[in-house]
Amino acid sequence: QVQLVESGGGLVQAGGSLSLSCAASGAIFTINTMGWYRQAPGKQRELVATITSGGTPTYADSVKGRFTISRDNAKKTVNLQMSSLKPEDTAVYYCNADLRRSRFEGNWYNYWGQGTQVTVSS
User: Fold this and answer.
1) CB atoms near residue 57 (< 10 Å)
2) Does 60 score more than 90 pLDDT?
3) Which helix H or strand E contains 47, and what residues bound it?
4) How far apart are CA 16 and CA 87, in angstroms?
5) In the predicted model, is pLDDT for residue 64 greater than 90?
6) Residue 87, helix vs strand vs coil
7) Which helix (H) or strand (E) holds 24?
């Protein structure tokens, strides 16, 4: 079965940096877009950043210039480098991926990781 596993979350002071990583494993043929989303208590889940299979990124306005998303297609991983962190960045961060599980079927599947907590103190 397919799994997405995040790592790298933790507690950091405002102005600091943190790097998140997500590894995809299992029956995977091709991964299209991968991304990071976050959800703070009492708020809706929101997009943080996405990256296409070709390496084209998109970012939420709130993180532009501070976060960088990257991926390694061979390793099937996606990373999020976060700098100049603010208390409002505090949330559970989730990895997401659209992928094909076999070369012999045309269906695309969407998967989520379990989430990793990022806490930024004032």
Assistant:
1) 14
2) yes
3) strand 46-51
4) 11
5) yes
6) helix
7) strand 18-25
pLDDT in tens, 28-58: 999 999 999 999 999 999 999 999 999 999 9
Nearest CA to 35 out of 71, 66, 5 is that of 71
Nearest one of 112, 101, 102 to 34, comparing CA atoms: 112
User: Which residue carries 């397919």 as its tokens?
Assistant: 2
C-alpha angle 6-27-97 in degrees, rounded to nearest 5 = 40
Which of 66, 78, 87, 92 shows the shortest CA–CA distance to 24?
A: 78
In which band, very low, low, confident or very high, does the pLDDT at 109 lie, cut at 50, 70 and 90? very high
Contact 118, 90 (CB under 8 A): yes
Cβ–Cβ under 8 Å, residues 119 and 21: no
Residue type, 100: R
Band (106; pLDDT cuts 50, 70, 90): confident
**Residue type at 19 in one-letter notation:** S
